[in-house]
Specification:
The structure holds two protein chains of two kinds. By secondary structure, chain A is mainly α. In chain A, 78% of the residues lie in helices and 0% in strands. Chain A is globular. In chain B, the strands form five sheets. In chain B, strands 1, 2, 9, 10, 11, 12, 13, 15 and 20 form a nine-stranded mixed β-sheet that branches. Chain B is an alpha+beta fold. In chain B, strand 5 (89-96) and strand 6 (99-104) form a beta hairpin. The chains are: A mainly alpha, B alpha+beta. Chains A and B meet through helix 2, helix 3, helix 5, helix 7 and helix 11 of A and helix 5 and helix 11 of B.
Chain lengths: 323, 521
């Protein structure tokens, strides 16, 4: 188990190096550089000026040199500065990441518990009106785009409950109530889609497990239905659910751009998308790298959690790491 | 492409109906209740993006300008009727078309308490020209041969050759900086400021909000009245409107035609007050005149006749604007009326006949590059595509990401493109760089001896009436075989809380008049 974890941690290094190269190349190779985007189509500039701007932003050097300069900075623990705003990237990410992480945690909390509960109920009452209603609800969650739901929520709240509406982000520790007021609608908009997906996964996995022979055995030996479902079935059905929730967690930490835009949350998604639009190279590179790092860590944690849910996997891991 | 600070817009009729007092700097002239300015309070303005810089000389984005407009001053500015007026200069003389003498306002203080001197103004011109600063607006001032300060209140600028658009360029791009303070901050002015304007920079939380606080020693009494102005970032336009409705935001600029209907509903319900001004930008389809078939003036003329500009305006911008040529009707003194442009009456037969003459009796196929972040322009392209089908011409629309679009534009790698341009208050600024052979924004590769000559004349002529005749000639030739099909200028809406009094829409700056605004309750 420990060796398995260590091996996975070591693997993160080449993964992150690979990601840093790919990210670097992608943002540098797309047409339009930072100077072009900054100048747009209206400024009256001479080629000399363009050259001096390119020099100022350090994009006059060959790509490999630019990469090495950036990677060298990173290794010395210097994430660098945003070219367009002059702000330190660690400060920008330090501001945006907590917002995104908090939204992620809230949305997962609000969606996962009810989703699992409804999923179980829908599975054990298969094809009942309750199951049908749950499935319809899940389909709605999957089908309704978050930005539409977000906009409609904002509109409805601004009309009928204006005191609940707020676009002024405050940190939870600064002002817990104010924070929850800002986070309520985006959490709901985000959780709605997640809820549908998680619920469907739970229901599907439960249905499959409930048909297994060991469930029959459990029932045959006279266990109560509650015990059968919660101890024998659910635990086995959780693996795909945890996988889905883990993936969601990874993606959401990258920032739910659309939700962040609609609700004016200063999170990671907005930070990185606007950096891409402005071709703010170091900010894009470092931002994506940090997201990738989080994604890799979350994946690792998800994989580790399998071992706790299912002892057989723990055994496989130990055997695997012994090879 | 567009700097909203310079977003010079014409105040059509535009004092807010309710806030009678606002116009000019003498609010005591009105007798209606609630018209005596009350100092204090905070007004929140919502913008789609955070400012990228506080240094006006390096500003090219749309969110920074409206904030800087309250912090910094120029020598000149434009009043609510778009007439040039003094800001830090109280008056100016133009002894000949290449000499400009500015008489400076006295006892003007910078936010740090320093008093503005003629040497600061001289320094500010030199800073604009500083190669190390690399201001994208420097080329407007390259003809300067000397900047003298005969006394502490006077600055004399001499150009190598006459330039009738010089004062407009000064109003747009010359910001007065404090020489000693700038020299003490070699790290640059991106995140700090020391202006002479009514508000000073307070707390700036990246991607969230910028708070400006009242500057007590502001030269332009009686304002400012508000203690602070907060610029809050709300990226989504529908969310900005919702925030206005709930009262979280009290001031909004709306450039999206699709929200016009909602604004008028909200106004009817008494939730907001609105005003609209015509934008100085023109929307257009630009040709690459080096590429076939657009190298043929007959083809360009044919397409001028083939489109119905009113229909494009009605569909793409929901009718929220006015059909125009290269100068938006907002520049009323310079814009040639549309009825003097023959192609502005659509004539499909004439278009077909011109195409046949040009050697394309069966039409042709070409590409339109459309910027995906400007839906109004993408919609324009769609309507133009439909209309051109009727003359047998097939357009293929390539929706293009902004960076990619600019890259193609710089490399002149396109058949045609849709977009908008403008924001100028002087025809020389609007036309010279875009239309002169080899001009820096002439992405069309347009080259016409007659136009070149007229542009030079327009620049060298000081007399406004004579200039008007010259620019009329240019405008008429442009809609015949010029490098663009001009379509329309859109309305820019202001939506403000009913609690705001004293606001008048200014054609030059969207936000500067907030110095005259107060809260009624």
């Amino acid at each position: 188990m420990l060796r398995y974890t260590l091996r996975r941690l070591l693997w993160m290094i080449p993964t992150l190096i690979g990601i840093s190269i790919v990210t670097f190349l992608m943002i540098h190779l797309i047409p339009g550089d930072i100077v072009q985007v900054m100048l747009g189509t209206r400024t009256n500039v001479t080629p000399d000026q363009i050259a001096s701007l390119r020099q100022m932003y350090g994009i006059d050097k060959p790509l490999w040199a630019q990469y090495l300069i950036w990677a060298g900075q990173l290794l010395r623990g210097n994430v660098g500065f945003s070219l367009r705003t002059g702000l330190s990237i660690s400060q920008l990410i330090g501001q945006a990441l907590p917002v995104t992480a908090w939204l992620t945690v809230l949305a997962l909390m609000v969606s996962t518990l009810p989703a699992v509960a409804i999923g179980i109920l829908a599975a054990i009452r298969r094809d009942s009106p309750a199951d049908l209603a749950a499935r319809l609800f899940a389909m709605a969650g999957l089908a309704i785009p978050g930005f539409w739901l977000g906009t409609i929520l904002i509109l409805l709240v601004s009309l009928y409950a204006p005191t609940l509406s707020s676009f002024t982000y405050v940190g939870f520790f600064q002002n817990p109530l104010g924070n929850l007021r800002v986070m309520m609608l985006p959490t709901f908009a985000l959780a709605f889609a997640l809820l549908g997906n998680t619920m469907r996964q739970t229901r599907g996995a439960m249905l499959e497990v409930l048909q297994q022979q060991y469930i029959q055995t459990a029932r045959a030996k006279g266990l109560g239905e509650r015990l059968v479902v919660l101890r024998h079935a659910l635990r086995n059905a959780l693996i795909p659910v945890v996988t889905i929730v883990g993936l969601d967690l990874g993606y959401l930490l990258g920032g739910a751009v659309v939700i962040e835009n609609v609700f004016a949350l200063p999170g990671m998604g907005r930070l990185i998308v606007s950096a891409i639009n402005q071709r703010d190279y170091p900010l894009v590179q470092s931002g994506v790298l940090i997201m990738a790092l989080l994604f890799v860590i979350v994946n690792l944690v998800v994989d580790m959690s399998y071992a706790f849910i299912d002892p057989r996997i723990r055994f496989d891991m130990d055997r695997g790491s012994g090879q | 492409m567009n700097r909203r600070m310079v977003s010079a817009l014409l105040a059509v009729t535009l004092v807010f109906a309710v806030a009678v007092a606002g116009c000019g700097k003498n609010p005591s002239q009105s007798g209606t209740a609630g018209t005596t300015p009350v100092p204090g309070g905070t007004v929140t303005v919502a913008q789609g993006a955070d400012a990228l810089t506080m240094d006006p000389a390096l500003t090219t984005d749309e969110a920074s300008g409206p904030i800087q407009a309250l912090i910094y001053d120029s020598l000149l500015t434009y009043d609510d009727k778009l007439a040039l007026t003094g800001q830090l200069a109280t008056s100016w003389d133009v002894p000949d078309a290449r000499t400009f003498v500015f008489h400076l306002r006295q006892n003007v203080k910078f936010h740090n308490g320093d008093v503005m001197k003629a040497s600061d103004v001289k320094f500010s011109f030199n800073r604009m020209l500083d190669k190390k600063l690399a201001s994208p607006w420097a080329s407007f001032f390259e003809d300067i041969t000397s900047i003298e300060t005969p006394d502490d209140n006077t600055v004399k600028v001499t150009l190598a050759k006459p330039n009738a658009g010089f004062l407009a360029a000064v109003a747009a791009y010359i910001t007065v900086y404090d020489e000693a303070w700038v020299n003490a901050h070699p790290e640059g002015l991106q995140r700090i400021e020391n202006g002479t304007g009514p508000y000073a920079l307070g707390v700036w939380t990246p991607n969230t909000s910028v708070t400006l606080n009242k500057f007590k020693d502001y030269w332009g009494a009686p304002g400012p009245y508000l203690d602070s102005v907060v610029f809050k970032v709300i990226p989504d336009a529908a969310s900005r409107l919702a925030a206005l409705r709930t009262g979280e935001v009290q001031f909004l600029s709306v450039f999206e035609p699709e929200f016009a209907a909602q604004l008028s509903q909200m106004e009817t319900a008494g939730q907001i007050k609105t005003a609209k001004v015509l934008d100085l930008n023109y929307h257009m389809l630009g040709f690459n005149t080096k590429r076939k078939p657009f190298d043929n003036p007959l083809v360009r003329e044919a397409l001028q006749y083939a489109v119905d500009r009113k229909a494009i305006l009605d569909s793409a911008a929901l009718g929220q604007g006015a059909v125009c040529g290269i100068l938006s009707p907002a520049m009323a003194t310079w814009a040639t009326p549309n009825d003097q442009f023959p192609p502005y009456t659509r004539d499909v037969n004439k278009a077909k006949q011109l195409l046949t003459e040009a050697g394309y009796p069966n039409g042709f196929t070409f590409h339109i590059m459309a910027p995906s972040n400007f839906p109004t322009d993408v919609n324009s392209a769609l309507i133009i595509q439909e209309q051109l089908k009727e003359v047998g011409v097939t357009a293929v629309i390539d929706k293009t990401e902004w960076g990619d679009y600019v890259n193609n534009w710089v490399k002149k790698d396109f058949d045609t493109f849709v977009g908008y341009n403008g924001d100028w208050t002087d025809p020389d600024l609007a036309m010279y760089a875009a239309l002169h052979t080899g001009g820096s924004t002439n992405a069309f590769s347009y080259s016409d001896k007659n136009i070149d000559q007229l542009l030079e004349q327009g620049r060298n002529t000081a007399d406004p009436a004579a200039r008007k005749t010259i620019y009329d000639q240019i405008q008429k030739q442009l809609v015949k075989d010029g490098p663009m099909i001009y379509t329309f200028a859109i309305y820019h809406y202001y939506a403000v809380s009913p609690k705001l009094a004293g606001f008048a829409a200014n054609p030059w700056s969207t936000t500067r008049n907030l110095e005259l605004v107060w809260l009624t309750k």
